[in-house]
Amino acid sequence: MEYKHNLLTKRLFQKHEWQLYLFVFPTIIFFLIFHYIPMYGIVIAFRRYNITRGIGDWVGLMYFKRFFDSNMFGELLVNTVVLSFYQLLVSFPFPLILALLLNHNRRKSFGQAVQTITYAPHFISLVVLSGMLYLFTSPSSGIVNYMLNKMGHEGINFMGKAEWFRHLFVLSHVWQHTGYNAIIFLAALTAIDPSHYEAATLDGASKIQKIWYIDLPAIMPTVITMLLLQVGRMMNMDTQKALLMQTATNLATSEIIGTYVYKIGLIDTQFSYSTAINLFQTVVNLVILIIVNKVSKALANEGLW
C-alpha cells in the first residue's frame, strides 16, 4: 500500500501530468477566493469595526464576553446543540440503510425507480421546501390536518408551535437528502468483490448476515469518514432553512446561533459581535471534530487524519 502511495505521489509531481493540475485548478481557486481569503475578516471579532470607518482598535475578547454574558447565550447554545444532535442521530442512518437495501435488490427497474424518487427531492430549493411544509401542515387547508380531522383529532398548527419545529426540520431534511447521501455508500458497496456474496450464499448466509458480515465491514471506513465530516459541521445548522421555517410563535426552539448571527450581523449591522459569535461556533465544531476523530482512531483505527 505504501509503495502504491509513493508511486502515485511521484506521478503527480511529474511535469507531463499537467492535465491533473489543470483539472484541480478551478477547485483550488474556488477555495482560495471563498474560503481562505475571507478568513482575514475574522480579525474584526477582536477589533472594533464600522462599515464607514473600517477596522478600528483592538478590544480583545470583549465581544465574546458580551455573548457569554447575554441572556440569549444559554438558549441559543441549547437549541443549536439539541437540533444538531437530533439531526445527526436521525438523518445519518437513513442513507446507509437505503444503500444497503438497494445493494441487495435484484430487480433493477425497482431499484432505479427508488433511487430516482429518493434522489429528486435533493434538488428542491429550501424556499420551495419551506412553502411545501407550510401548505401541507396548514391548520385550515393542509393535508396533514385534513387527515387528522378525518381520524377524529383536532388540527395542529405545526409551524406555529415550538415543540414541532425540530421534528419538522429534521424529518424534512431526511426526506430531502437521504437519496442523495446514499450515493456515496452505494459507490463504496460496488467495490466489494462479488465472490464474497457467492461464498456466503453457498454457506447458507441470509441477506441480513451478508449485510452484517460483508457489507458493513467493507464500507466501515467510508461510514466513519462520512460521520466525521458531518460531525465537523454539526453546529453549522442550515440557517436559511431555519429562518424560512421560523415564526414568531416557535422562536423558543427555532432561534439557533446561525439565525441569531444573521439578525444581529446583517439586520442590526453589529458585524464584530456577529463575527465573534460565528467564530465561537466554528471553534466548538473544531473541538468536537478533534475529539470524535480521536475516539474513532482509538476504537476503530479509522479517522480523517
- Please count the helical segments: 15
Shape-level CATH architecture: Orthogonal Bundle
**Strand arrangement across the biggest beta sheet:** 1-2
Structural class: mainly alpha
Strand content: under 5%
Overall spatial form: globular
User: CATH top level?
Assistant: Mainly Alpha
Describe the protein's architecture and organization.
- This protein has 305 residues and is mainly α.
- The chain has a single domain, classed as MetI-like fold.
- Strands 1-2 form a two-stranded antiparallel sheet.
- Helix 7 packs parallel to helix 12.
What attributes characterize this protein structure?
two-stranded antiparallel ribbon; globular; MetI-like fold; 305 residues; mainly alpha; 15 helices; 70% helix; 2 strands
Give the secondary structure arrangement, pairings included:
Blueprint: H1 2-12, H2 18-36, E1 47-50, E2 54-58, H3 62-69, H4 72-91, H5 93-103, H6 108-119, H7 126-136, H8 143-150, H9 162-189, H10 194-202, H11 207-232, H12 239-245, H13 251-254, H14 257-267, H15 271-300
Helix pairs in contact: 3-15, 4-9, 5-9, 6-9, 7-12, 9-11, 11-15, 12-14, 14-15
Q: Could you write a compact summary of the structure shown?
A:
The protein is an all-alpha fold. It has helices at residues 2-12, 18-36, 62-69, 72-91, 93-103, 108-119, 126-136, 143-150, 162-189, 194-202, 207-232, 239-245, 251-254, 257-267, 271-300, and strands spanning 47-50, 54-58. It has one domain: MetI-like fold.
